[in-house]
## 1
Amino acid sequence: MNIDNRNTYPLISIIIPVYNSENYIMRALNSLIKQDISDIEVVIVDDGSTDSSYRIACDYQKKVNNIHVYHQNNSGVASARNLGIEKSRGRYIAFMDSDDDVSTEFCKILKSEVITNNDIDMFIFGLQEVFENGDIVNIRTSAKSKNILLRDGDDLFELFENNLLPVTWNKITSRDFIGDTRFRDLIIGEDYQFYLDLLLKQPTIRVLHDILYNYHVAIENSAMKHYDAMRFLTLKNQQSCVIRLMEKEKLDSDSQNRILEVFNSRSRNYMIMNFINSSNSNPNFNIRKEVMAMKETNKQFTLSLINILFSKYLKNNMKVKLLIAYYSNIVTMNILKLIYLYRDKN
């Protein structure tokens, strides 16, 4: 598509999958429509909500010409995003979750960036994790705005170190570059897989230091709180994608080791979280099977004790969890359960 053909296509499509978000969707939409959304369309896909989310979205559609609402039977967030891609018309595609909101400069900065840098396939911007009371928990962003090269080990490492890859809502990508790439039907990790698939197509990338997105942590229906029996296989497949990417870009061994250390640390942590979710919600929970799963995790996602103890990027609470699970047995896994029980009560 010709980026200068403004009369035919909107510049940006913002796709929002919705499922039972009646308590949050107005906050999300208001954060957009308070800005200049000319040349932007908002595509809402209701994924079979059983609350009033769909009605609320339709009310906004009646008031704002740039908002378009679609409905499907409950099929999951991957299916909803894929439908959004098909229904949208923007030359660039961004994603937003219905329980989050964006900064007041979100639309202005992104429109300016894609017009000024129209040779870039993917923009990755900063985000902040916030509690519902507005307190900022964490900020994830690059040190400065710049074009990066995947074949540069330091540039690629920065994406992994700052945890900028696993999510959809801190990126905007050219529709032409996305092509026929679509979200896979995974319980957890479909967003990470989507962007790993895109990275393997070797996009031109620009990272932005600007903090443009507010990710609200601890929302009740968060997928990260659900047990996923396929989590290990998903992470193993994503590890293979990361290795393929590094080999494709011909990264040196030091860069590969640094990136894998980050990826493996987070993968172990995801599996610890999956164990906790299983103990809380899986009717077939079996501590012995979970111990074996953790041992398999440690074998697949290799880390030394020195990697964990002297890591420059791991927070202390993650270091503690990884150290406890390092020698996985019934005692250590029950200690992890107790830590999470204490944290949840406080």
## 2
Amino acid sequence: MPPDVPQKPPLEIVKQGRVWLVEEYRRGARDGETFSTHDEQIDAVRSAKSKMDADRHPCAVRWDGPRSVSEVYWNPLFECLRVEYDDLVGAWTVVPDDGTCAMAVHDSREAAGTHGKQLQRSYDFKHLHAYDRRGRTYEERDHRFLRHDVTRSGVRFRKEAIESVPPPEEEDDPEETAPETTTDETAVDYVGPASPGQLGASIPDVTKVEFIDTDGVVNRYATPWDGGTRAEILAVSSKHGTDEGVQPAFSERLSRWEAVDESAHVATVHESGTAPTPWVAYRVGKHTLAEIGTDLPVQVRLDVLGDVVDAVTTVADSSFLVCGLYPANIHLKGGDSGWRATVSNWGIEWAVREALGVDHGSPFTAPEQLDGRLRPTTSVYQLGAIAYWLLCETTPVEETATDSQAAVRTGQLRTPQPVSDVSQAVEPVLRRALAPDPDDRYGSPIAFYRDLSGSV
């Protein structure tokens, strides 16, 4: 067998007592080698994905109970196995999509097809596609995990809430017991249209989904999470999930966020994935700044802005320029005794819109972003726009998309009119932060915040 197609078992992520194990999947019997243990499920998932890629395991199975699977992560190397006629060889071949060598060669299509099914089962390829001599598909076969829809048990549905599902075909490996896929009355309640059912099935912790914003290219949902906390889910619209450039744009911004999500003012990432579209679930607070920012005392508004400045300073580095600073992406935890802010998104939506060529103007968007560029002082502009809104209780430019883009590009701001508790001395500070030329702004968020705090 070609050495570039290793025959290794899938991995599994399973809870044992209070810890999560990453181990070999041994046909449903949990007696495989254990590779690592983790206190948190998300750490186990990350470890399993890394090992899967590095050691070329075909997939990783994440269990949420003794007999139910919540997610299957696939190695791209095992995405598809093809049965096709090779004119150069003059025979029917079985070849991986990403492979360079045929795994099998036969004189007849029937023999190649039968051998292809055996190889798919033995090597755990996700899909098998068989073609005729003209290159037309005549048979497609999914891995048994997909045929049995094993991840369906990750979220329970009311029977009346879903369409009936035909029974799976007979398992072609009778000695292996497939994980159960159950339907019971522990329901998932969807507030609004029913489109995120697949999303819920990909995230085992989801028990209720509330639609926050489902009109754009990136949608937002809210859901309860473990321990009585709240989470939001950011997911690319199903309309654009497979468009060119979308997944890399999403992943690039997300990877930096995940790298620093243990920082005090960066929203904690619970989970992320790519099915059915790229998504990320992260912890949020009781409110967003958009909801209550102008109801807070002025000093508290400044303190919250200081938290955001700390977050930006943590996330930004020489290879990652910050954007995505909007009141709706700033989450507030606490209450009358004090509020603490965390920041999410970190430009994911901007990057996806840019990949799709979709306009993304708003009163908080820097002029260079409208041209698809980021600068080191883009975050200063966005912080200045948030500060303007907090201290003047209006946006620096008109909120309609057309008017805001024109005003942002030319720097035609509304004359700052600070609220009564704020000195007029903040006006030049805000104007400098909101300069249309990136080089005319403060050189860093800290420099801007220092001057703002001293002028209020």
## 3
Amino acid sequence: MWSLSRARRAVIASALVMPLLLLPGASDAQEQGPYPGLPELPSEQDQATRNTYGWLGVAQVGRAYSPVAQQWGRVPAGLLATNIEFRTTEFTDDNGDLNVTADYDIYAYLLPTGGGGDDYGVSPVITIRTVAFGSIPTEVQLQLRQRRDTSDLPFGFHIETQFTDNYARQLRTYPPTGFEDVVDVAVLGLRIDAVDVPLADTCATGPSARLALASEAVVVDQGAGETFDQDRGFSGIEGGTLDGSLDIPPFTGCSTPDGDDLSAVLTSVISGPGNPVTVKLGILGCYYGFDEETFAPLPALPGTPIAEAGCAPDVSEDVEGIPSPLPFPEGVDDEVAP
């Protein structure tokens, strides 16, 4: 039988490994949109067009570091259901050059890719394997959950981004994009030394884990033959890389059937501020399918495997449809880190 004293030996090394995209969330009640499980989204142009024709998917990967466990972890490829509204504006700068700015208004919803639930707004189940005190095998299952309204509709992560083309100078500028949200980090399963540790389904931080990410500013000199690189900056349609941190608050509700409360144990080995996180997004162009009447692209359904999401092919080795796994810092063994 599992006991609290034995649980104290568990070191869950990679508790931060989960699909993350941190975007400002809404706080008001939402209306059901045209697709079950997804809300009606606001629009500055035409709301009906946006909610019917604005859906594209995007693949993502990432990496994270836990200062508490001193462990790097990799985020496997996952999917987001995204809705995009696009517009362009022209202006003449102080040098008399014509500039065109492309603005992207994006809402993104986590998908339990290949398993982990039937709802939008939750990530796949992420299984992390490590060892406690160098010898005790430890496994934890985690899930990231977006906030939900009183009708159980998820609040999408929201990002506004842009790039500007200066045609005379053949320069494309990607300004930095910063955003944050709060999410719920849930523990779905725990296994230590080959023994399953049953936990109540209430074991989570609640929707109070603060995530904040930002991209760097990038200027691409197209006249010199330069092209956008997803490893630097963020471009709405071409994806990109976001760096930031995750603040994990204490866990609650982590009781076993025997009445042992492991909340403090999990808090001691997972929770803390400033956990570094990097997310890389592929091309926003995963076409799951099309409506037979409107021919509108359909949002991918929860549980859709990436291989069946219709993601765009790579444009180049620097702009990928499904991003390659992010490397760990120099000196970290890829074969050891989860």
## 4
Amino acid sequence: MSATRRTYGSALKSDAVELAARSGRPIAEVERGLELSEGLLKQWVRKAKRDGEAAFPGHGRLKAKEWIPIPSIPS
């Protein structure tokens, strides 16, 4: 039997990172309280520090700096 992979929206990720920062509790404790996999919140915190507000753009959406312009095709 395979495990089901859970997905989390950008709002939950941002809220969890904010909670970890404001609570004063260890990240592992916040993870357990939110029933997240071990190490997941730490990854989100690192990503938020590195990318700021662009850290969690949403499911399958590229960050603005990753956009590649698509050349137009002459008709």
